[in-house]
Each structure stands twice: as C-alpha cells, then as structure tokens.
Amino acid sequence: MASVGAPAASTQPSLPSGITVLRTVPYAFMLPEIFCGTWVWILVAATSVSSPLEQGWVMYVSLSSCLISLLILLGYISGFHTNSENWKVLDSMYHGITAILYLSAAVLQANVAIRSEFSINSSPLYYHLNCAAVFFAFITTFLYILHAFRIYYH
C-alpha cells in the first residue's frame, strides 16, 4: 500500500539513448528507413530522369527524409533528447508527415515507371531502375508508417 505523500511511479517507458536505440522496436526502423530511402534516391538518380518534375519530387523527399532521419537518429544515440516526452510527439509527427510525403513520391515514381515502359526513348534498364525505385519507395513508406504508429500507440 503506497503512502499518501509518496510520488506515483512513472508508467511511461523512458526514451532510449545510446546504441540501445537500435534495439528497441519503433526506433529500430530508422536504419532501414534511411537505407531504403537512400536506395530510392540512388535508383532515381541512375535513370535518365525523363520526368524532372515528378522525379525531382521523389529525389527531394528521399534525400531530405534520409538526412532528417539521420539527424534524429544521431539525436537519440547521443542522448540529446534528455528523455523528454516532446521528442515522442516530434518523432511521431515527423514520421507521419514523412510517410504521407513518401506515399506521394512512391505514386509519382510508379507513374514514371509505367510511362517509361511504353516510352520509345527509354531503355529497358531505365524501366527496371524505375521499378526498383518504386519498390523501395513503397517499402520506405511502409517503414515510416510503422514507425509513426508504433510511437503514437506506445
């Protein structure tokens, strides 16, 4: 039986810091997010960029998301978050918004891949690179969605 003046024990789990961040479930998605997002950027950059507007958006989303995710991961590893609950909100909002942006980029890249299949000027290599970029874009979208919901419902 707890005494009346004793502070209640915290039921909120603490945010991980250091290298243990890579072993906890929602934060373990960050390295695959960065890895798959980097592949999206590399694969789109390896094509002839036949649709600069659509593929420019895909490259912007993938590159900026990789860099921001890397900064957040480094913040968790270095312990910069100081176990603040605001970091959970920031992390959940960032990953939710990024999932929406990545979904738009994946759909645009899928459209480019479909058009490159029937294009006279496009080689089969560019079609395959575009399809691989679509695959990694949807995988990255899924990882960002998983991360956002896991943080939100944690």
UniProtKB/TrEMBL annotation:
The chain crosses the membrane at residues 25-45, 57-81, 93-114, 126-146. The keyword Membrane applies. Its main location: membrane. Residues 21-154 form the MARVEL domain. GO terms for molecular function: structural constituent of myelin sheath. Keywords: Membrane, Transmembrane, Transmembrane helix. GO terms for biological process: myelination. It is found in: Membrane. GO terms for cellular component: membrane. It is a multi-pass membrane protein. It comes from the Eukaryota. PANTHER family: MAL-LIKE PROTEIN (PTHR22776:SF24), MARVEL-CONTAINING POTENTIAL LIPID RAFT-ASSOCIATED PROTEIN (PTHR22776). This is MALL protein. The gene is Mall_1.
